[in-house]
Amino acid sequence: MKTLYLDCFSGVSGDMLLGALVDVGVDGDALIAELSKLNVDGYTLSFEKTAKQGIGGTDAHVELHPHEHHHEHGNDHEHHHHDSRNLSDIQHIIDSSTITDGVKELSKKVFQEIAAAEARVHMKPIDEVHFHEVGAIDSIVDIVGVCICLDMLGVEKVFASELHDGKGFIKCQHGIIPVPVPAVMEMLKGSGIPLVQEDTGTELVTPTGFAIVKCITSAFGTMPAMDIHSVGYGFGKRETGRFNGIRVLLGESKGKQALEDLIVLETNIDNISGEILGYTMERLLNEGALDVFHTPIYMKKNRPGVMLSVITKADKEQAMADILLRETTTLGIRRYAISRYVMEREIFKVDTKYGEIRVKKAWLDSIVKYSPEYEDCVICAQRNKVPIKDVFAAAMVEAGK
Asked: Rounded distance, CA 28 to CA 40, Å?
C-alpha cells in the first residue's frame, strides 16, 4: 500500500508540506498546471531546490500580486482583496474548477475544519468567518496543492509523528496571541492528536498546516513498517533558531494493515463485586473502549483480586479513566501507550435461510476472515428454533461466496 509518513519534528505549515511533497517526487510544473484549474489570479507559485543547515530540500514560494484584481473566471463575484473570502467563496472556487472530485472533497474538508475552528474562537456563525491568513491566496494554493500532490503520488494512507509546536506569543491581525494559536487549539481539542510544546518562543504549527495534517492522517506515532522509496524535505520561512522544516517519507507499507497507536488503562482491585465489574465493563464498551477484560491476580496478603484492563483510543482515554474512577473502588489507574496492527475491515449483510445476518470481513493481502455478528445469529436461532451453530455455519457459507 502506497504510504506517506510525515515527520513533524519542527511543526508543520502548508508551504512546508507543499515543498516536501515536491521534493519527494511531485512534478512541480504539473502541480502548477493542475492548480491553474482553480482559475484564481494574483499569485505566482515556484519551487527552489536549496539547503538549510546542510540538508537539501525544496522551498515552496507563493508570490502574491496584491495590486491586481483577483477574480475567478466565469464568476460575476469579483474579489478586490485576497483575504476577504469566506468559506462559501472558497467552496465555490473549488467546486467550479476541473480538478478531480477526490481533491475537491479533501480540500473542502480542510477548509471546513479551519472555518469551524475560527468560528468557535471568534464566537461567530461559520458563514461570517473571513479567513484572514487562511483565506488568502497562498493558503488556498497550499491546501489544494497538497491535496493534488497526494493524488499525483497515489498515496493510499498517511501517517504522522507527534506534532511539535513552540510557546510564547506571536503577532497577527487580531493582536498578540498565545502559541499554540487559538485556532490550532480548537482543532486539537478532542482530536487525540499528540502535540509536544518545545522551548521555542514562536509558532511552529500553523492553522493551515494543522488542518491539513488532521484531515489526511490516519494515525499518529512511530513510523509504520514500510519500504522507503524516497525522502523529501520542505522548508518553512520563519526563523526559529533551529532547523525549520518537515521530512516526508514515501514508500510501501508492509502489508495492508495500519499501525495504530492506542492507550492501555489498568487497575488492580480486590474489594469489588462481580456485578459491579460486569456493569463497569458494559459502560466502558458502550462509551467506546476497544476492549475490556479482567485478569485474576493475587494481591497483598494473598488476597484474590482482578486486574481490570481497558484498551482505548487516545481521544477516549479521559472518559475511560473517569468511568473507572466513578464505577469501581480503585484509587488509581496505570496507563501506557501501545501500538497494534489492524486488518482492513468492513461489515456487510448476507441473506441466509434463517434470515438476514451482518458479517464482519477482515483482510490483509491474501488473508481473509469472516465473523458473523453474534446478536443477529441469536435472533435468527431463536426465531427459527435451531441451534445457533447452524446459523453461524449458514452465515459463513454465504459470506464466502
From this structure: 18
Q: What is the pLDDT of residues 332-380, one digit of tens each?
A: 999 998 888 888 888 999 999 999 999 999 987 778 999 999 999 999 9
**How many Å apart are CA 176 and CA 202, to the nearest integer?**
12
Q: Which residues contact 54 (CB under 8 A, 6 or more apart)?
A: none
| Among 48, 46, 12, CA closest to 32 | 46
Q: Nearest CA to 139 among 231, 212, 34, 71?
A: 212
- Preceding peptide of 182 cis, ω within 30°: no
**Is a pLDDT exceeding 50 seen at residue 206?**
yes
How far is 85 from 91, CA to CA, in rounded Å?
10
- What CA–CA distances, in Å, run from 379 to 49, 353, 392, 398? 64, 13, 12, 18
Gap between the Cα atoms of 141 and 40, Å rounded: 9
Which domains are assigned to the chain? 2-256 (no CATH), 259-341 (3.30.70.1380), 344-399 (no CATH)
